[in-house]
Amino acid sequence: VMYFSSVFPYVVLLCFLIRGLEIWADVQVWRQAATQVFFALGLGFGSVIAYSSFNPQNNNCHRDAFTVSGVNFMTSILATLVVFAVLGFRAKLLATQCVKRSSLPNLEDNNVDVEKTTLESYDKLYTAVNKLVNVSDFNITTCSLEKELEQ
């Protein structure tokens, strides 16, 4: 039971990470996630102090301290990557739904497939239409990935 309960969370995190990498592969997002990991890491060795009371006198405490710190570090990185992958996928899904929901006037009449419209092409189209007419009159909203990530 102990082996299962200590290894299974890592298996689940790895499954989520692989799925997140398949869905979302933007380097900038992963760089920001790695930066967040380094800010979130603390240097407290409370677990080492708790374990030290049960160790024999001739135990290698330095090795144990580095092992616990290393495992903690890798777990933090793995969990952070998984969380950012899920949040990034959710933001992209919401932004894509916003593009589909915000139909531009006469967009379908001009043989434009709304289902295949990307965020980048929608942003360019929104900017161009906004220069020509006031988009607030047509109930058109801006759909950006950054806006969804900030929420």
Write up what this structure looks like.
- This protein has 151 residues and is an all-alpha fold.
- It has one domain.
- Helix content is 69%, strand content 0%.
- It is built from 6 helices and no strands.
- It has helices at residues 2-23, 27-40, 46-52, 61-101, 119-132, 145-150.
- Helix 1 (2-23) packs across helix 4 (61-101).
- The radius of gyration is 24 Å and the shape is elongated.
- The chain starts with a helix and ends with a helix.
- 7% of the residues are buried.
- The model has no long low-confidence stretch (mean pLDDT 74).
Number of contiguous helices:
6
Low-confidence segments, ≥5 residues, pLDDT <50?
Answer: none
Question: SS-based structural class?
Answer: mainly alpha
Sketch the topology as an H/E string, one letter per element: HHHHHH
Q: Helix fraction?
A: 55-70%
Domain count: 1
Mean of all residue-level pLDDT scores: 74
N→C terminal distance: 40 Å
The share of residues in extended strands comes to under 5%
Gross morphology is elongated
The largest β sheet comes out as:
none
Radius of gyration: 24 Å
Quantity of strands, as a count: 0
Which properties best describe this structure?
6 helices; transport; mainly alpha; single chain; Na/ntran_symport; elongated; 151 residues; metal-binding
Question: How are the SSEs ordered, and which strands pair?
Answer:
Elements: H1 2-23, H2 27-40, H3 46-52, H4 61-101, H5 119-132, H6 145-150
Helix pairs in contact: 1-4, 2-4
